[in-house]
Design a protein that fits this description.
Blueprint: H1 2-43, H2 51-63, H3 75-86, H4 92-103, H5 110-121, H6 124-127, E1 130-131, E2 139-140, H7 145-155, H8 165-215
Parallel strand pairs: 1-2
Length: about 220
C-alpha cells in the first residue's frame, strides 16, 4: 500500500511539472513571435540602404538573445540569472529581454500582475526561502537584481506608470509571505488525493472480489 501511495505522489508531482513546462512554452512561443515581428519591422524599415547588414548583425543578435528557463526552481538557477543581470556589459541584451518577457505576464492590476509574474518566474518552494526584506532568517528578495527588473517591467507599462513603489512592494511582500502556506496546502492536497485514490482502488478491489464470489 505504501508503494502505491509513493507511485501516486510521483505521478502528481510529474503532472504539476508538466503543467508548468507547458505554461512556460506558451510564454516562450509568444516571445518568439514578438521577436520575429520586430525583425520583420526592421527589414521593412523605409530608407534602409543595407538590409543584408541589418539582418546579419542587429537582427541576428535578437535571435540569439538568451532565454530564461522558467520557472526558476533552485537558488543555483536564480544565481545564474543574477550573474547575467550583474554582468550587463557581456549580457547587455539579457536584462532588456527579461523585462520584455516579464511584461507578457502583466494582469489588469498590480496584485494580479505580481501573481502572474511570480507564478511564471519562480517555484513556490524556492520562494519559501525569501522574504521581501530578508527577515526571519530568510534571504532578502528586494536585494536581488531580478527584483529590480520586475519593478522596471511593471513601471514601464503605461497603465502602471503612476503606481507607487510601496504598492508594488506590498504586493510582492504579501505574495512571498503566503508561499509556505501554499506549499503546505499543495502537499496536503497531494496526500489527500493519494489516500482518496487508494481508498477508491481498495473499494473497487473489494467489490470485484465479492462479485466473483457471488458468481461462483
Amino acid at each position: 500500500m505504501l508503494k502505491f501511495y509513493i507511485i501516486l505522489l510521483n505521478l502528481d508531482h510529474k503532472l504539476e511539472s508538466v503543467e508548468k513546462q507547458v505554461a512556460g512554452l506558451r510564454y516562450d512561443h509568444r516571445l518568439l513571435f514578438d521577436i520575429l515581428d520586430r525583425i520583420e519591422r526592421k527589414i521593412d524599415t523605409p530608407n534602409n540602404v543595407n538590409r543584408t547588414s541589418l539582418i546579419s548583425s542587429e537582427n541576428q543578435s535578437l535571435i540569439n538573445q538568451p532565454f530564461i528557463k522558467t520557472p526558476i526552481n533552485t537558488k543555483d538557477e536564480l544565481e545564474a540569472v543574477e550573474a547575467k543581470l550583474i554582468n550587463h556589459e557581456q549580457n547587455h541584451e539579457f536584462r532588456s529581454q527579461l523585462i520584455h518577457e516579464i511584461k507578457w505576464s502583466m494582469g489588469n492590476d498590480i496584485r494580479h500582475s505580481i501573481k502572474r509574474i511570480f507564478e511564471k518566474m519562480f517555484n513556490d518552494e524556492l520562494l519559501c526561502k525569501y522574504s521581501f526584506h530578508g527577515i526571519r532568517n530568510k534571504t532578502s528578495f528586494s536585494s536581488l537584481n531580478i527584483c529590480s527588473a520586475i519593478f522596471e517591467a511593471i513601471r514601464s507599462e503605461t497603465k502602471f506608470k503612476n503606481v507607487q513603489l510601496k504598492e508594488i512592494e506590498d504586493c510582492i511582500q504579501k505574495y512571498l509571505v503566503q508561499r509556505p502556506f501554499v506549499v503546505k496546502r499543495k502537499k496536503a492536497a497531494i496526500i489527500t488525493n493519494a489516500e482518496d485514490n487508494a481508498a477508491l482502488s481498495l473499494h473497487f478491489l473489494f467489490f470485484n472480489t465479492e462479485n466473483k464470489k457471488l458468481k461462483n
